[in-house]
Design goal:
Oligomer: heterotrimer
Order of helices and strands of chain C: HEEHHHEHHHHH
Order of helices and strands of chain A: HHHHHHHHHHHHHHHH
Shape of chain C: globular
Structural class of chain A: mainly alpha
Helix content of chain A: over 70%
Structural class of chain C: mainly alpha
Number of strands of chain A: 0
Chains: A mainly alpha, B alpha/beta, C mainly alpha
Strand content of chain C: under 5%
Strand order of the largest sheet of chain C: 1-2
Distance between the termini of chain A: 25 Å
Largest sheet of chain A: none
Number of domains of chain A: 2
Number of domains of chain C: 1
Radius of gyration of chain C: 20 Å
Amino acid sequence: MKLTATNGARGKRRTQNGRGSWPDRFLEKLLPSRAAREIEIAEAHIRDGRFQRSLSLLAGASSVLAGAEVAYEHYRGSYGQRIMYTPVALGGAMTIAGIWGAFSKRAARTVLRWTSAVTLLDGLIGFCFHLRGIQRKPGGWRLPLVNIIMGPPIFAPLLFGVSAYLGLIASFLRREESPPIGLRAPKGLVLALTSAEIAAHHPWTVGLREGRFQKHLALATMVGTFCSGAEALYSHYKNNFRYLAQWTPIIIAPLLMGAAAAAICNKKAARTWLPAMSALAIIDGGVGFFYHARGVLRRPGGMKKPLYNLIYGPPVFAPLLFAACGTVGLLASLMRRER
Amino acid sequence: MKTPIGGEFEEAHDHEHHLGAMQRLDAPMRRFADDDEVDYLVVGVGAAGGVLLQRLARAGFRVVGLEAGPFWDTEKDWVSDEKGSHQLYWEDMRITGGENPLTFGANNSGKGVGGGSVHWAAFTPRFHPSDFEVYTRDGVGVDWPISYWDLKPYYELLELEMPVAGPAWYPWGDPHGYAYGPHPMGGVGDALIRGCTKLGIGVSAGGPVAILSGSRNDRPHCIYRGFCIQGCKVGAKASTLITHVPDAVRNGAEVRPRSMASRIQLGKENRVTGVSYFDREGREHFQKAKAVIVCGYAIETPRLLMNSACDEYPDGLANSSGTLGRYLMAQAGTVVLGRFDELVRMYKAPPAHALTEEFYETDPKRDFARGFAIQTVGPLPIAFAKQMMVARGSWGWGMRRVMMDYNHWCAFGVLGEILPWPDNRVTLSDERDQFGIRIPHIHFSLHENDKKLIKFAQGKTEEVMHAAGAKETLNEARFAHLVGAARMGKDPATSVVDLFGRTHDIANLFICDGSILPTQGSANPGLTIQALAARTADYLISQGATVFNSDKRDLTPPPVRPHLSPPGTHGKGVPRFG
Amino acid sequence: MLPNERFNANRERLPIDPRTDLPLKPRAQPGYYPGFSTLSQQSFWDATTREVVRKRVHEIPPFRFFKAEESRLLQIICEHIMPQDDRDAEHRIPIFPFIDERLHAGRTPGYRFENMPPDGEAYRLGLQAIAQISQKAHGKNFIELDWRKQDELLKSIHDAEPLPGAEEIWSRMPVERFWGLLVQDCVEMYYAHPFAWDEIGFGGPAYPRAYMRLERGEPEPWEVEEKRYEWKAPPACVSDPAEPDIAAHKEHPPAGQGGTH
């Protein structure tokens, strides 16, 4: 997580929450005090839902990767249908919207929100097209194994939706410079509304705005990890598991999914297992990225065939998507739970 | 899994006509009566005939295509099996001789709708600009009556219609890119790329090859099964059977299968009146036509014209020059085989998927004119065993031993330019076929330049194979493709047809297939043959009824008509460079 | 013959295990891919292909083209060209019946060399030549010669330097063309059979299901890894030299005839 604390002076640490969880203690020991303080500020922002700028930027940045990956993956499929251009265009649009949203509150609430929504929808439509693509291969769904592996990557469109999902969430958050929840308004006003009333007026946006969507984000972690893990499973299976390391995402994915599931039911798990497994996934994604990049270079022709080997070598960005799922998990662990 | 979900794959019981895994022939076919004088009668519905039929039908002409073989149903007629695919090849008897006799059948001759494009490996490089002026540049062979730039728009068009998958940037000849992305590599392609890059030789990965790399319309993309030259049941590899003929039928063309043309009839005023042919029961018919286009490829075209000899043309129809049947060319197709310590399994992935044209052009440092390409090939077990018989002298236990190592071998094919020589020719033998038609006799010998080229190319290919990691190499001399024997040219005294394929002798008789190529370059001829057909079609459409009622010979180039492409051609794929 | 007797009678014709110098017992599936079975995958093939392969395995064509005498001779010759003594009786691949069937049906590869008679006649002439050579060299019928003598006689034809006795026939038909015809037919029949595919690790028919592991020779989930073993050719054979054996045709190597590109 790279969240810069632009408003460090005002980011007052709320000590009553999360103080006891072990990642905090671990980080405190490990990091110099300056960095630890910045992290504390970032945590506070997340806890309060005051990280619209950062999340917009993150959504924008991850859209670059997702857009690049879908661009070359669809090039493999020769853009045989025009709709295959949409995720590439939307990847670009998401990047712009994310950056814009980081600078402008208005853009974050309008451009980013709607771009993200359209991109999410595109991911769902893409998912349907990919299902259809598999069905249209010789043997169709009667040969699920071969046709899922050799057909359009079934879960890729859903994974493509991850950055759009982050963008959508960002659009509902508050900005880093907004006052912490406690300082936002006279106490009486907040107390005047019961949680039921808040829920009645703003069923979920208020929760989001206040950083109360831990369960929700844990669920997203589960779904994302499932898709990413499944992709790793069948593409590593296609590769006949030539390296032992290829098993790691297959093992970590269910662990992370389990941790996320536990986090939905249990607050404690959300503060312990979820960040631990998320960190594991992030590290694994990083290592995988290295191996995949190395795999590309080791292909026949290596750097003399950069584009070709990028297209047909191990997918370099795929491990980063797996890491992104871990990141979402980590984010979830820092949130407050829904009312 | 022991079976597919729902048990073993069933027979195609339906009454549909399958053209690949998804496509169906969706329109009833028009039928013309023999005495109904059609506009164009196309003899041979192969690579060129299929394109011509489609274009002419779309333009509104009344056209019939006579095809000696069947109108394939890819599900019911074709098999995913090497020995079971002989029906795809022209296996009627031909006599072959000369110092380096050519072989036919599976090697280069197709039968049935789609012709050779049904069993080609589908490499589709363009010819280089230099190929059109070989004589001017190198003092050998002959110049074409057209230039590369005349044909370029048709290359671009056909590359979309088939379509051709290949790299975004192809550096040789007139550099260009492909609108459809390259294919993944199999073991053979990996070896070629490894060998070439190690030696600093440029190499193209994943094409150009007329196999779908992404599904398009009602054709799925390649499934990498390696049975390209046994006919693509998937419908991913382009053949006119699935790319152009369905649209021709939809637009009112008739394809008359199992109809063996025996004679083109010359009428009054030096004009042809139609074609005699034998139907599947061996009955003879005569189809009337206002004009005839012969698309029988380099052996059957001269054979048919020679068998149509008459008082006016005693040496064969349209053969006043004596050139018909001469200047037959095949390309040097020496296969270099390399044994690797590790497994290759070359039966996977299409045989055609990587090549280099680094040695294509004449190099003054070499002692011969013109050049060659190196391409991937992927012989299946029977073809490989036959190669081992030639290349290693294998038989008995030696054959068993080397075949047990089949999965360790890898094969590259040389594709070298052999120059046109007048003594390499097709004539008629005295023997007759099942219809009583005289069969062809082919004489083929290599000349000095050809031999030097082959020797050099073989050495270079072995070098690449070793650089790729092979511990042992062998080579098998052979030939690939057939072109020439009714060449086009400006001078009626030294060529058979003009630059649009119209015979110099007879104004309503055309030839359009590989036989009109004056020289052949080191590129597989399939794309060029189809591009020439599209160009001839545009010309015929521009000429309109003049062809039917006058001997006027207008050589104005026609406009390119992209709107005559089969539906679903344009607006797909990526923008193309170059 | 009891299995053991048969084994002993054919000892000279069995490949040798170099570690023990003993003959390798005939088995169901020689080759380096134990347990690999293409036929076990046939439900993944399309129905048309399945039927063609099924017929090839189960419907052996009757003998119609060759006369009885010729049949006996050609059958023995086929056993030299594609020896199968390492296969048990149930797993031998019929070759002769399919050659007979091809000639009976008059199927050709689509060409004939100008100095060759039609294929059927070429076979008859070739068999006659072998019979004559055998008489002249050994004073016996070919089928009565011991196995090694037979192999050596065929080797002389392979080398295009046939033992004397049939000069008149070779003047009408080039010996290397006859050899090419014979060997090509034999390998075509042998390597068209699923048992041969299992032996060499070839995947067999591949539609609608094809491959997903295209590179590095990786096996599909239904294929098996290679397990090599050493073997020496049988003592009674001369057909497995260590080096390529094409000296005889070096000047004019015959062109290959399969379609590859």
